[in-house]
Design goal:
The protein is α+β, with helices and mostly antiparallel strands. It is built from nine helices and 26 strands. Strand 21 and strand 22 form a beta hairpin.
């Protein structure tokens, strides 16, 4: 139906043209931008994901740039460490040459000094962007909480949306050759606990450093005195004899034992022709040598039940001293006496001589007391271990079964209420030792002496023994980080300490191993950075590709659609033109 009020065909054609124009505009935008989702209204979910991932891609790109900086730092440190390893090899060769007889050690030291300067120069030069991993300034380079350097390694986004920039750490204790506070690979280790408060004894090395023993004990031998044999002694008359009294195991007044003092056991001794014949009839009553006299004396002492004996005497090289005879207590605790004492009294003879035997006596002390010359010490951190360095040792009194103990930094801090691991006074040392050992050794008294020394001793009310079966002390002392370097590389001097050359060679061997280990750590980090850099590049490509799949336009499809929509637009315009001409056809019917 035609209407003079509305043109329905025109309206329909106009609506069609508008729709076609809208689609054409959208397609033209897609073709122009290359995107099918260019704003949130196009597809909110895809637009959000794409926007986030583009941001992540830029972050990964920044990480890739940071990795390049980190790689440069590691490469610089590795180049320096590799050069130092070579110099240390040359240094070791010079030390080996110094072992040759007749070589001029002063000239070799001149060469060594130049090699030292070369190492220092390399360490100083191995710096990139203000960071030097070979020459460091760390307050405590052993503490992994404070000695870390790091390089950026990755960017991550967790499933909950949390983002993080990850770093790869390297502990400078593995790479530092020289540290301002000590502890570098070519420096002495500042964690030397030295005497551990007096527990162990020190002795000097040929290179001028101090080493520490693994034990500190007090012990003694039985009471004895010695005399020089003079002979021969002849028993050629029936009445010939040597007589004396022997007293054993009296208490020593110097020990200040509580209560009544034991006077010891006294036994009369007589030596006559029958005694000599009982030992060796072939002597015919004549004692010609000190060995023969020892046999006769020992027989007489034993036959009388005296709890004393005669023996040879040895020097410090464990060689027998000719014509020297010792008389000692057997310290037979079955006799109920605790002392260590031997005495010859009332010595007399009707022979031509007593063979040098005269009145004499000797005490042996109580060896159940040990004095520790206290020096303050610190139980240090050990890398990342909260417990710190562990000190272990065995302890025993009077030959009893040894018991094992240990303490560490955490134990010291908890016991003394500190956070430093320091044992600073003799009283604190007493507290540490008491807490460890008192339960196992209830008769042990541990006390400080004038605040400077620590004394460990058995309670004399319980233990009155003296002599060879008394002892006290620490054995098997071990510190978990030892052995540690006690020498500075720069202090090596074969001219001043020529006898220390072997020690120097051993030290350089150890230092070289540590330098090689440091180079290995850097090499491993180099490899890690290279792999991470390659992975970052792949990640950027993968993210870009993934975003493209979500929002990029298919240009072939969009081009085809554009051509079709342009045709539709032309047809819609023609349709609108036809629709607009229809009212003129109606007017022509009325002759207009």
């Amino acid at each position: 139906m035609s209407s003079i009020i509305t043109n329905g065909s025109s309206i329909v054609a106009l609506q069609t043209l508008r729709a076609v124009n809208a689609n054409l505009t959208s397609t033209q935008q897609n073709v122009a931008s290359g995107l099918r989702v260019s704003k949130a209204s196009d597809n909110a979910a895809y637009w959000s994901i794409a926007t986030t991932m583009r941001s992540d891609s830029r972050a990964v790109s920044a990480v890739s740039d940071a990795l390049s900086i980190g790689a440069a730092k590691v490469d610089t440190a590795y180049a320096g460490m590799d050069a130092v390893v070579d110099v240390l090899g040359a240094f070791k060769a010079k030390l080996v040459a110094a072992k040759e007889d007749g070589v001029d050690k002063a000239k070799i030291q001149t060469d060594l000094d130049q090699l030292k300067k070369q190492v220092v120069s390399i360490a100083n030069a191995a710096s990139f962007s203000g960071e030097n991993w070979l020459n460091t300034d760390v307050a405590d380079i052993i503490d992994n909480e404070n000695n870390s350097a790091s390089v950026v390694s990755s960017f991550t986004r967790n499933s909950n949306g949390t983002v993080a920039v990850n770093q790869t750490d390297i502990h400078l204790s593995k790479t530092s050759l020289f540290n301002s506070t000590g502890g570098g690979i070519l420096q002495h280790d500042p964690r030397d606990m030295e005497s551990i408060g007096g527990m162990r004894l020190g002795y000097y090395q040929l290179d001028g450093t101090t080493d520490w023993s693994s034990s500190n004990t007090n012990w003694t031998r039985e009471a004895r005195f010695a005399f020089d044999f003079s002979g021969p002694i002849t028993f050629d008359d029936p009445g010939d004899e040597i007589s004396f009294n022997v007293t054993v195991d009296a208490d020593n007044p110097a020990d200040n034992l509580p209560g009544a003092q034991e006077a010891g056991k006294q036994t009369p001794i007589t030596i006559n022709r029958a005694t000599v014949d009982a030992v060796d009839p072939s002597l015919n009553g004549v004692i010609s040598t000190y060995q023969q006299y020892i046999r006769v004396l020992d027989y007489a002492l034993g036959a009388a039940g005296s709890d004393a004996s005669a023996s040879e005497v040895w020097d410090y090289e464990n060689k027998v001293i000719p014509d020297r005879i010792a008389i000692s207590t057997n310290e037979n605790r079955a006799n109920g006496l605790n002392g260590s004492y031997v005495q010859v009294s009332g010595a007399s003879n009707t022979t031509d001589t007593r063979g040098g035997l005269v009145d004499n006596s000797a005490y042996s002390p109580r060896a159940s007391t040990l004095n520790l010359y206290f020096q303050g010490f610190q139980d240090f951190k050990d890398g990342g271990s909260a417990e710190g360095v562990t000190v272990s040792f065995d302890f025993s009194v009077n030959g009893a079964a040894r018991k094992s103990y240990s303490f560490d930094r955490k134990y010291v801090n908890d016991l003394l209420g500190k956070d430093t691991g320091l044992v600073e006074t003799a009283d604190e040392m007493v507290t540490v030792l008491q807490s460890l050992m008192s339960a196992d050794w209830p008769d042990l008294i541990i006390e400080s002496n004038s605040g400077t020394n620590v004394t460990l001793r058995t309670d004399p009310n319980v233990d009155r023994r003296a002599g060879s079966d008394t002892s006290i002390g620490f054995t098997s002392i071990n510190v978990s980080i030892e052995p540690i370097p006690k020498l500075d590389f720069l202090d090596i001097d074969v001219a001043q300490f020529p006898d220390a050359t072997d020690s120097y060679i051993e030290y350089i061997e150890s230092a070289s191993r540590r330098a090689i280990e440091g180079a290995s750590v850097l090499g491993a980090l180099q490899s890690r950075i290279d792999m991470q850099t390659e992975f970052a590049a792949r990640m950027i490509s993968t993210i870009d590709s993934g975003v493209g799949r979500l929002v990029d336009a298919d240009m072939e499809e969009e081009s085809s659609r554009l051509a079709a929509q342009q045709t539709q637009q032309q047809l819609a315009i023609q349709s609108l033109s036809i629709a607009n001409n229809m009212p003129q056809s109606v007017l022509s019917l009325f002759g207009g």
